[in-house]
Amino acid sequence: MQSTLFTNVRILDGTGAMPYAGSVLVQGNRIRTVGRSSAALSPAGAAVIDGAGATLMPGMCEAHTHFSWNDSATLAGIQTMPLEEHVLWCAKIAKRYLEAGWTSCVGAACAKPRLDVVTRNAINSGQIPGPRYLAASQEITVVGGLGDETLPHLPFPEFSFGVNVNSADEMRTAVRLFLKYGVDSIKLNLSGDNFTQDSPAETTWMSDAEVAAAMDEVRIRGKRGTSHARSAASVKQSLRHGIDVIYHASYSDSESLDMLEAAKDRVFVAPGIAIILAMLYEAEPWGITHAKAVQMGYMHEWEAAQESLRAMHKRGIRILPGGDYGFAMTPHCQNARDLEFFVKYLGMTPMEAIRSATLYGGQIMMKPDELGIIKDGFLADLLLVDGDPLANLSILRDPKRILAVMKDGVFAKSPDIVSQRRWEHAA
Ligand SMILES: [Zn+2]
Asked: In whole angstroms, what is the distance from residue 132 CA to residue 121 CA?
């Protein structure tokens, strides 16, 4: 069994405890022992990695991932990428996420029916490198809703960007098809979105009968429902129907907050706020000036979202990083910006932000007892980081500062770079 001993590291274990100097022994794919000194670890035959004071922390989890978003500025730009190129794109992006320190990702919808499933299967069978991955369906929407990218003058196709349903029966058909493909979750677009002006963020168009049909099938197969839910009504609809993962949750009222709090041991909220900020302040190269974004409703939503998410955080509702990276204005692998946003706008401490990417990550990946923190017996998903993320969260999105990435006991980004770097510093 292959063993690796990290010595001389600052252990930031993901639980919320303050970092401490110590050593971590990995055997096979698990953390065997965490200790304050390496002497006690007796690492017979282990490869020794001298961290030279670098931070060792759990691999991070992206809670709202779209590998198949291809850095376009529009949904149509994603949808029209030919299938063959799209498969290769997903493989490339999966590798990049892993090397950037995202050792787990929760798929939150893909752009063609089987892109997520095929990517997950290729990762799990060792064909391509990538994070632990939960594969999503396409977005399921109602006609005219977010994700309906069919053109009015063309015949109604079976698949557009999202899958359009018009009844509980059509919902059941769509959900069963994705379950047949092997998805881990079914994504329902319960609210609209300011990205699509004909179905803005505060609209809530899917019927309860349609959501109930979807969740009935999801439960029968032991899978999970996730929702695009920006409006307060769609958050409540998610909770009424047993959806575990709620994306966005920008708008709230006291009833939705009470319902979220009552379900806080079951529910995860991944707001994906980067896209709102990017639309407001960083999207001018793609024709969206600040004034245009305000007119589209983004400022109204941003103000509501800060208030809603701060209230959720105060009530102990789990808020996780990630979401809607993969557009031109939110390029892939800048995802750790979310941790900075959580501190700056939602009232989290840096430690709480780290915990949202690690401890909560293991929980949303459905492995709460073996993933997400540095602890004896847990899966060996680890990052070696140059510096102190608690003092400066932005180092987590700087590839030069991510010195090594280990997933399942194997290096995805080699620590050889560390030795070389240390040697260069010494020279
Ligand atoms: Zn999304």
From this structure: 10
In the numeric block, the tokens 């030795």 are attached to 419
Helices (H), 315-366: 337-346, 350-357, 359-364
C-alpha dist (Å) from residue 176 to 117, 138, 172, 223, 404: 14, 13, 6, 11, 40
- The Cα–Cα gap between 315 and 382 comes to 30
Domain with CATH 2.30.40.10 in the chain: 3-59+372-426
CA distance 116 to 87: 9
Q: Is there a contact between 51 and 418 (Cβ–Cβ < 8 Å)?
A: yes
Rounded to the nearest 5 percent, the helix, strand and coil shares of the chain are 35, 20, 40
In whole angstroms, what is the distance from residue 372 CA to residue 381 CA? 8
CA–CA distance, 162 with 141 (Å, rounded to integer): 6
The predicted structure's pLDDT at residue 424: 43
How many angstroms does the Cα of residue 56 sit away from the middle of ligand 1?
30
Note the pLDDT of residue 160.
75
Intervals of CATH 3.20.20.140 along the chain:
60-364
Helices (H) and strands (E) in the chain, counts: 14, 18
pLDDT in tens, 6-21: 999 999 999 999 999 9
pLDDT band at 416; cut points 50, 70, 90? low
Distance 322 CA to ligand 1 centre (A): 9
Å from CA of 107 to ligand 1 middle: 9
CA 249 to ligand 1 center in whole angstroms: 12
Ligand 1 mean position, distance from CA 288 (Å): 19
* Cα–ligand 1 centroid distance for 205 (angstroms): 18
- The structure tokens listed for 411 are 């290096």
CATH number for the region 3-59+372-426 comes to 2.30.40.10
Nearest to 7 by CA among 426, 427, 422, 424: 422
CA of 109 to the centre of ligand 1 (A): 7
pLDDT value at 46 more than 50: yes
DSSP 325: -
CA of 265 to the centre of ligand 1 (A): 23
Q: How far is CA 5 from CA 2, 22, 34, 406, 415, in A?
A: 10, 11, 10, 12, 12
Q: pLDDT class for 427, splitting at 50, 70, 90? A: very low
Residues with CB under 5 A from ligand 1 (ion): 108, 324
60-364: CATH topology is: TIM Barrel (3.20.20)
Q: How far is the CA of 124 from the centre of ligand 1 (A)?
A: 23
